[in-house]
Specification:
With 103 residues, the protein is an alpha/beta fold. It is 34% helix and 21% strand. It is globular, with a radius of gyration of 13 Å.
């Protein structure tokens, strides 16, 4: 199942994603760029934060999760984003995506 939460800039998307990650130990977080992990996320959660390319390249193959939380992953390349959503759906991962989508 895919849930998209469209929120404006500064609406607390990252804060909400961090709270969800803290509450759900069977969840992992995806961010578009590796440098974002050091700048925006607590150190104790960083072992469960990945980029889409890490997921698609099999970096997580030995780990078992049931939920994926995407924080601003709409900043990714559209092809990577499509492959990522296919991967998440194929593996039956519940997916919550926080994003700012300009219409």
């Amino acid at each position: 199942m895919l849930t998209i939460r469209n929120q404006g800039r500064g609406a607390g998307k990252t804060t909400t994603a961090i709270k969800l990650l803290e509450e759900n130990w069977d969840a992992f977080l995806l961010v578009p760029y590796r440098h974002m992990i050091k700048n925006y996320y607590p150190e104790d959660l960083r072992t469960r934060i990945y980029t889409p390319n890490e997921i698609l390249n099999g970096f997580m193959s030995q780990r078992k999760y049931r939920k994926a939380i995407l924080d601003d992953c709409f900043l990714c390349d559209p092809v990577t984003l499509a492959k990522l959503h296919y991967y998440l759906g194929y593996n039956n991962l519940e997916t919550i995506s926080f994003a700012t989508i300009n219409e």
